Amino acid sequence: MEITVVNAKMKITRSIAGAVLFVFGCGHVCGQRSAFEVASVKVNANPPRMGMGAIHYSPDTLTARGVSMWLLVRWAYGVGSFQIAGPVSMQEAPYYDIDAKPGGAVPPRQLRVMLQALLAERFHLAVHREKKEMPVTALVVAKGGAKLYESGGKFEAGLGAEAPLQFLGFDNNVHVQRNVGPDGRVRDSFTDMPMSVFAQVLELMGSRTPYDKVAVIDGTGLQGRFDFSIVTERRNPGDDGSQAEDPLVVYKRILPGQVGLALERRTAPVEVLVVDLVDRRPTGN
Predict the structure, then answer these.
(1) Do 86 and 154 reside in the same domain of the chain?
(2) What does the alpha-carbon distance between residue 33 and residue 36 come to, in Å, rounded to a whole number?
């Protein structure tokens, strides 16, 4: 899926079409709320194309507009689409609007746990985990070591227009920016980027939609957050009668020399979220 850019001066609130985390919540036993204090769930009357609406969240609010069940599950459980085993009907209408408040400020991870509980309550969502062997693209450290700088956490608007990747549920410090120079070269700049999140970015770059099952996993073992840039030659599809090259193929070629990372094809065990049951219509508010 090609990354669309927006004006870097825009203040971007967290949006979704996709990512998630499966947690066996301990609720009040651990001193944390495991359910929203107030929540409204409705079928969207004017749904967007393919249910790729948006989730906006802050410490005390979660709002979804026109989002498919597939993408709600993806965000709530912190998985990629390649980690979801469920009916294709989850990608189809109806799409949903959610307005929920936890009754106080909570971190994003806890909002996801609360959304899991809400989906179970209102849609009778039931899931379990399985390990499955599958072909994957693994992000690893190249020979000679990584060429990355520890992040200073500072957003630089001059690095280019920002890509709206917030639907993955990243925190506010993670940024991806794109700048096309006069020579046609494209510079993608990554700020405050953990390698686990970079693997998710690569998954989306190699997809046409967030529903595509493009398996990319983090195998670097690198901890922390990093600032780095990757430069590619811009090529317009059709200029020479050919199609645009797969971004993952391009990155596989240039990552080792530019940032000391590599993409390797392998078979690996992957934890998969299996959807056992989910209703199409929510119970009443």
Answers:
(1) no
(2) 8
Residue 11 lies in a domain: no
Domain range enclosing 110: 27-131+272-277
Decide if 71 is inside a domain. Answer: yes
Residue type at 254 in one-letter notation: I
Burial category of 136 from C-beta neighbours within 10 Å (exposed 0-12, middle 13-18, buried 19 and up): buried
Quick check: 178 and 163 in contact, CB under 8 A?
yes
141/263 same-domain check: yes
Residues near 172 by Cβ (< 8 Å), separated by ≥ 6? 14
Provide CB contacts within 8 A for 176, sequence distance 6+: 3, 162, 163, 165, 188, 189, 190, 191, 193, 201
Q: Are residues 126 and 143 in the same domain?
A: no
pLDDT digits (tens, 9 = 90+) for 70-114: 999 999 999 999 999 999 999 999 999 999 999 999 998 999 999
Question: Number of structural domains, the chain?
Answer: 2
Integer Cα distance of 1 and 263 in angstroms:
18
Helix (H, G, I), strand (E, B) or coil at 96: strand
Q: Kindly give the pairing relationship between strand 226-233 and strand 149-150.
A: antiparallel
pLDDT for the residue 15: 37
Residues 6+ apart with CB under 8 A from 31: none
Same domain flag for 139 and 108: no
Q: What is the pTM of this model?
A: 0.80
